[in-house]
Structure formats: C-alpha cells, structure tokens
Automatic annotation (TrEMBL):
Keywords: Signal
Identification of the protein by name: DUF541 domain-containing protein
A biological process from GO: DNA damage response
Superkingdom, taxonomy of origin: Bacteria
Record organism: Rugamonas rivuli
Protein's UniProt keywords contain Signal: yes
Amino acid sequence: MLKKLAFALALLPFAVHASDLPEYPFIHVAGEGFLRLMPDMGEIDFDIAAYDADTNAAVAVVQARVAEIQALLAEQGGDPGKDTEAEVSFADMRKEMRKPANPDPNAAPDYEIRSAVHIVVRDLTKWRAVMLGLLGKPNIDHMSTSFGKSDRIKVEAELTATAIKDAQRRAENLATGLGKKVGAVTAITNGQLRNLTNAVGLLPTDMHNNRRGSNAKAGEKDFLTIQSLQWSQTVDVIYRIK
C-alpha cells in the first residue's frame, strides 16, 4: 500500500503539468518579425567632471561647462525646455572620491565635482554639430550615445504583425507535412521587443571613458555616425489542428 502511494505521489507533478496542455490536437510555433530602420532621434549621456584642491574652483569649472553646453544647444535651435530640436537636463552637482594614479595611503582623500548631463537630439541633422561641439570640450567624462524612434509604438505594431504572419506560415508548413490544416488560434503571447546588438551580448560600441577629464577626440570613437536600428519581436502561438 505504501509503495502504491509513493508511486502515485511521484507521478503527481507530471499529471499537473499535463493538465496545463490543451486537450485537443494542436501546433505550437514561434514567429519572429525583424526590422532594420534609421532612427529619428538620438540621446547623449555624460558627466562633467572637474578637480581642484579648492572645491569652489572645481564647482566654478562645472558651472562654466554647463553654460557652454546650453549655449551650444541654443546655437542648434534647442534649449533646456521640452519638445525642442535639442533639449538638455543637468543633474545636481555631487562630490565623488578621486582615485589618483599613484595614491598616497597617508594623504587625505581628494574629491572631484561631477554633474550628469542628458541631451536629447530630436533633429538628427543637428547631431554632428552637437557632437563636435561636445567632443571639443574638456571635463567631459563617461560619454555614451544611443538612438531611437519617436514612433516606437507604431514600429512595435508592425513588428508584431510581421511576427504573427511568420508564425502562421510555420504552422501551415507543419500541418501540411502531417496532411492536416491549421485551425483557430487558441493562445498567443508576444516576447519582449529586442535590440539585437544588446540581445547577442555585444558590448556597446559608443562608450567612451576618460577618467582624467581631458579633451575627447573624434578619432578615438566614432560618435558622429548615426547608427541604424535593428529590432525584433517574437510571438508564441497555439493553433488547433483540423
């Protein structure tokens, strides 16, 4: 009796799992939509970093860079407001411990002043001028760029429609091989929209680290090129088999 009970309990997980499956003949397929398109907006992130034994002097340097960046964007038809060709936001200044190349364990810690900057460029004809203006400035650190689409929701809808058509094609091929036909859709779910560059584990190609805060040169990294977008969308679909 005990052996029979133990055997029944061992089969219980399989019975629960099987009960989650449809109780009719079905085909389960995955479809994928893929798009390569050009962006219509870009974003720039970096820190303004300054060091001076006199903290007030370092703060003054950061404030001067902030004013220069605001002037640069104003020249390109933007301002710190919203919905302009280029807008900028500055985080509050903060103190971070400085790590010198040859630290003296007996010396008092040094601090540098930093402010995070985020720029949105909505008119990419201004991209090159904005980037050249930034790359020519000192005290720019940890710069990165990214691109996107303002009509992202529309793009997602197009990708999903393409993925569903791909799933339908795959299901019909399977059913034909069995001498059957595809029936009604009984379940469907979509996977997350993916940026293919990040999905395959590649490192970002637009990162620039400059711990010393010296001038960034355009030849070190190609920040001037507008990169195309590669997006994919997957769907999982369950069809009845006729």
